[in-house]
Amino acid sequence: MALRWRNDLRESDITPEPVFLDRRQVVAGAAAGMALTAATGRPAWAEALEPNTWEEITTYNNYYEFGTDKGDPARYAHMLTTSPWTVKIDGMVERPGDYAFEDIMKKMTVEERIYRLRCVERWAMVVPWSGFELADLLDLAGVRSSARYVAFQTAYRPEEMPGVKFPVVEWPYVEGLRLDEAMHPLTIMATGLYGKDMPSQNGAPLRVVVPWKYGYKSIKSVVRITLTDSQPPTTWNKYSAREYGFYSNVNPNVDHPRWSQKYETRVGGGLFAKKERTRMFNGYEEEVAHLYEGMDLEKYH
Ligand code: MTE
Q: Which of 85, 249, 267, 285 is the most buried (most CB within 10 A)?
């Protein structure tokens, strides 16, 4: 499997943003061993994955626990106490328990992943996350052979989350993945971006990132992970099953009932940002299409 979005940067290698960008391109290019484009000296895919700015990634957010305006999370998410933090891992695991964030971090290998993020609302970004593979965390807890799905839950703290007094969706925010999706090496628990700790508005201290699915699957500020043998309920599917399926794979050929999913607009492009074609599985088709072989992607949208 070609994991072209991967490189070997560790947290200890992280440097300030401008330097970091240069080195990332060098490291990423070397790791991929790919031909560099003559014009820029960078591999073609790195060019295509030029990340959005820190400013864009941290001020244009969806985190409804803090309000539904794109600027609300940046305004209010600092109210969330993110340290200490524990993640309860339970259900079909060998070692259920409350795992302290710091203890998790001591055991995980943190690396940088530059991923596309495609929101169901048709905006897109490229984000230089840092984090570790969800599979490694699940291995820490020891997944039992009976488990088929992974359920996730965000913190629910009315006193720290001004948005939860509005029943926009059912709280707490919950999400889920099939076990093979959760174990896929592209699926990460992100703990930072641009080499810094995760900003609260992006889901501090740790959130799921599944780059081939619509952004709402990438649940923020996770407090509980439960291994189950049945498909878990998910927030947007409960809100409207017809509009938001359990799978929610990015798919330009399956429209949302109220809008086309064929195009997207990159955040930060300004007033005249041009639409770009949305790619199957958000550009990660080569890596993930096999997970859905033989499935009717319209039915299992
Ligand atoms: N997680 C929680 N708990 N609450 C939310 O409202 N919004 C989702 C997802 N995770 C959301 C969430 C949606 S719709 C998107 S597009 C992404 O977070 C946005 O992530 P970002 O703000 O880091 O870009």
A: 249
